[in-house]
Fold this sequence. Notes:
By secondary structure, this protein is mainly β. 11% of the residues lie in helices and 41% in strands. The relative contact order is 0.17.
Amino acid sequence: MKKIRFLLFALPFILFACSSDDxxxxxxxxxxxxxxxxxxxxxxxNPFGTNLYSSTNIWDYFPLEDFVMLQGxxxxxxxxxxxxxxxxxxxxxxxxxTFGSETYSTPPSHFIDLIDNSNEExxxxxxxxxxxxxxxxxxxxxxxxxxxxxxxxxxxxxxVVNMTVTNGTFRYKYED
Length: 176
């Protein structure tokens, strides 16, 4: 009798503990931004753990009224490294956008920056591409891919690549 009572008591826990989840559990669906930085996996959301665009921007080179900032910080609020993508609001459209290093006079249409506080180097973007593969104007979701390189000596005539970011993906809400 004890065994039957135990089984009747345990049955609901067993049934509810096993769930059938048909959703895609791949890493790409769990993170707003993914990439390989010098071959090392980078998986990130914004610093608050979501895929919402950043409503703050300390760089007046990319003013918020003109640009949307997509911030991917691995490890949350105090995490590292961080990749920032700026999309020009008037150019959030399907296509591939190429950029070079920052000019400090006229901002490019789209741009990417890498911040890695694990070293003493200052990563300066040399160049790369952002490809916007989907723009949903109803849900305000933008998806795409990216790749770029950085240097710690971009002032030189021929910058030496010290970081290569490949296989980048992003999926962010770009407006409220």
